[in-house]
Amino acid sequence: MASYNTGYEDELFQHPVSQTFHCSICLNVLKDPVSCRHNEHLFCRTCITIHLMNFQTCPSCMEPLTVESLRQAPRTVTNLLSELKIRCQFFDRGCGQFVELGDLERHVTDCGFAPAVCSNEGCQLEVNKQDLLHHETAMCELRRVKCDNCNEIRQDMDTVKVNLAAMNEKLKGVGEQLVRHEKKMDRNEKKVDRNQENVKTKFENVVAKVELFKNNFEDNSTSRKNAIAGLKRTIWK
Question: Does the keyword Zinc apply (predicted)?
């Protein structure tokens, strides 16, 4: 037998529920109960409606059955069901109440633990309904805050903007001066490099001349020594 799980699960109830009040299809406690025409077999309305899309018989007694021929469950059944105590569907959000099944819809509508979304622009945080006002007005980082001296703050902000604009102009001028100094330093560095190259060339020329002079001097000294030696030999003879 197919199970559509449209009824109320047993663990949601404060006390065990008689099998008399269980759907023969989903096996859960009846939700919006209806019955077949003759034998009053009970089903959740959704469960039996889905069943009758494929089968035109009662799943319990197998008698012919259509959606049109379904009957409301007996009043005694609906009355007893409405008095059963069931846990609020928001128990996982903190609601610990058990309410009568007949009042469940009203309780769920008013429950302070129902989810609610912050309406502040850009927030979209989901909180419990009972905490929504406090969140929106006191906790939300995107909440609108009442300003007691907005005009004064606005004037101060305008002054700050003017000062920032002036500082930006000064910084722009300083930046331009730095660019000019950097270009000047580049030119000076190139000039120094050229001067160093000229000095190096001149120094190398001086060294070459000194070396040439030294060589010439040594050659002359040798010639003089040879001449003196020849003169001495002539005299001694």
Answer: yes
Is the full-model pTM beyond 0.85? no
What residue ranges do the domains of the chain occupy? 10-109, 114-145
Burial class (CB in 10 A: 0-12, 13-18, 19+), 108: middle
Residues 6+ away with beta carbon under 8 Å from 76: none
Under 8 Å between Cβ of 28 and 22: yes
| Multiple choice CATH, 10-109, 3.20.10.10, 3.30.300.20, 3.30.40.10, 3.90.850.10 | 3.30.40.10
Say which residue, 58 or 186, is predicted with more confidence. Answer: 58
User: How many other CB atoms sit within 10 Å of the CB of residue 99?
Assistant: 19
Element (H, E) at 190: helix 150-236
